[in-house]
């Protein structure tokens, strides 16, 4: 009888563990990114740095090349996989944009490992169902940092590669602190190194890193630009303001190293930008965190904070929907390209956005 009880206990436990493990793994399975009509080549990061081959950092690199020669723009989404607007914007570009002149290189899941987990205690929904241009897409939400299963343990502190600056240890799993990367370093440093190799070999004129931030964060609804890219950022911001899109420009801090816009701009000739939109589902003031909050950005505590003048972006009962955040990113990218084209006719980048982009 005792043996039977033990057997039953283990059998039931095994059944429950298998069931929950299956569910867990199914939730972390990544949705496909469709190859749009403009895509001319799909590469991997390991094509630029073989050290990433067969590692969890080896993400897809989509190339959209026009028939006519022109300039080149590099677009990164998913540097922080808990910021869906960046990933979704890059995915929409891959699936819908056409390039007549020049080239787009898009990496929707820059930190692929970060898409394989969510951050403990953040209650992030693992999947959300997003509708764009009447099409439904399932989106995986990940974590800000590389999965500790792929990079562990963290040292207590992390010294950024190009300076003596010391940051918190967990930041060594933050792709946006590990540039210009290290071919012999951690998986995050190797991904950063591979992205630098893309910039060295493909020589993009413009490089844009797409992000989201909490509405109470100081750098939000903003273009952060490397010193050499400031003129274009300011003119693009003026154009966007004329179109009714409120956006600020910030100079990339000179003494804050490891960041994409700082290191891309310091080590290569590319014009480096980082774009931030406001996402209440990653803010500290939020209440219930669920799919609805990610999609609509409607939150009663953010409304109270807005009424108390504590936010850095306009906020009302309509929230800050993911659709709006993606539209802001798309419009800002296209405006930066437009301004660049005005001053660089020899490196003209001719892009058609085949999806609705009204703002
Ligand atoms: Zn970010």
| Largest sheet data | 9 strands, mixed
Ligand inventory: zinc ion
Reading off the top of the CATH hierarchy, the class is best stated as Alpha Beta
Rg over CA atoms: 21 Å
Helix and strand element order: HEEEHEEEEEHEEHEHEHHHE
Tally of distinct domains: 1
Name of the CATH homologous superfamily: Zn peptidases
Structural class: alpha/beta
Nearest-integer average pLDDT: 95
User: CATH topology, which one?
Assistant: Aminopeptidase
Architecture, CATH level 2?
A: 3-Layer(aba) Sandwich
Tell me the total number of β-strands: 13
Q: Helical residue percent?
A: 25-40%
Number of helices: 8
What is the first-to-last residue Cα distance?
70 Å
Protein name: Succinylglutamate desuccinylase/aspartoacylase
InterPro entries: AstE_AspA_cat (IPR055438), N-alpha-Ac-DABA_deacetylase (IPR053138)
Pfam families: AstE_AspA_cat (PF24827)
Cofactor: Zn(2+)
């Amino acid at each position: 009888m005792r043996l039977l009880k033990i057997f039953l206990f283990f059998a039931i436990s095994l059944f429950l563990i298998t069931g929950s493990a299956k569910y867990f793994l199914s939730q972390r399975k990544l949705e496909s990114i469709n190859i749009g009509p403009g895509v001319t080549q799909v590469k991997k990061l390991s094509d630029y740095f073989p050290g990433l081959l067969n590692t969890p950092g080896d993400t897809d690199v989509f190339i959209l090349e026009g028939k006519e020669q022109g300039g080149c723009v590099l677009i990164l989404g998913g540097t922080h996989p808990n910021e869906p607007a960046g990933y979704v914007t890059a995915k929409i570009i891959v699936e819908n944009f056409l390039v007549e002149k020049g080239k787009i290189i898009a990496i929707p899941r820059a930190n692929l490992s970060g898409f394989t987990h969510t951050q403990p205690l953040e209650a992030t929904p693992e999947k959300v169902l997003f509708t764009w241009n009447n099409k439904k897409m399932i989106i995986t939400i990940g974590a800000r940092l590389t999965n500790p299963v792929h990079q562990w343990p963290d040292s207590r502190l992390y010294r950024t590669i190009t300076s003596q600056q010391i940051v918190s240890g967990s930041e060594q799993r933050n792709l946006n602190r590990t540039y210009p990367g290290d071919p012999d370093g951690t998986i995050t440093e190797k991904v950063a190194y591979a992205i630098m190799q893309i910039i060295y070999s493909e020589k993009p004129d413009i490089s844009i890193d797409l992000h989201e931030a909490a509405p109470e964060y100081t750098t939000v609804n903003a273009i952060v630009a490397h010193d050499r890219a400031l003129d274009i950022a300011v003119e693009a911001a003026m154009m966007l303001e004329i179109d009714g899109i409120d956006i600020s420009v910030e100079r990339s801090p000179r003494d804050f190293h490891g960041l994409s816009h700082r290191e891309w701009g310091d080590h290569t000739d590319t014009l480096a930008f980082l774009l931030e939109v406001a996402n209440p589902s990653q803010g500290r003031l939020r209440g219930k965190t669920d799919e609805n909050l990610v999609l609509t950005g409607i939150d009663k505590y953010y409304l109270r904070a807005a009424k108390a003048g504590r936010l850095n972006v306009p906020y009302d009962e309509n929230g800050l929907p993911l659709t709006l955040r993606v539209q802001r990113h798309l419009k800002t990218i296209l405006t930066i390209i437009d301004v660049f084209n005005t001053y660089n006719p020899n490196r003209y980048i001719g892009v058609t956005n085949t999806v609705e982009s009204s703002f």
